[in-house]
């Protein structure tokens, strides 16, 4: 799932930036991480709904 990969990539970049330059360099990236997290959660909710619909249609 690309959304999951994006969250990890952004977090890794932030951690590297924090290690090299401190929190002040990583903090501006938080909104992008939050957006990626929100997209991942939306994708997971959609997937859960698809599974539920498929399960309901089998019965």
Give a written overview of the molecule:
Helices cover 90% and strands 0% of the residues. It has 3 helices and no strands. Helix 1 (2-21) runs antiparallel to helix 3 (30-58). With 59 residues, the chain is mainly α.
Protein topology:
Layout: H1 2-21, H2 23-26, H3 30-58
Helix pairs in contact: 1-3
Shape: rod-shaped
Q: What order do the SSEs take from the amino end to the carboxyl end, as H and E?
A: HHH
What is the number of helical segments per DSSP (H or I, 4+ residues)?
3
Coarse structural class: mainly alpha
Q: Cα distance, first to last residue?
A: 28 Å
Rounded to an integer in angstroms, the radius of gyration calculated over CA atoms is 16 Å
Overview features:
mainly alpha; 90% helix; 59 residues; 3 helices; rod-shaped
Quick structural overview:
With 59 residues, this protein is mainly alpha-helical.
């Amino acid at each position: 799932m690309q959304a999951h990969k994006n969250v990890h990539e952004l977090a890794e970049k932030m951690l590297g930036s924090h290690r090299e330059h401190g929190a002040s360099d990583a903090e501006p990236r938080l909104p992008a991480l939050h957006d990626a997290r929100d997209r991942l959660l939306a994708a997971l909710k959609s997937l859960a709904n698809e599974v539920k619909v498929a399960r309901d249609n089998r019965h």
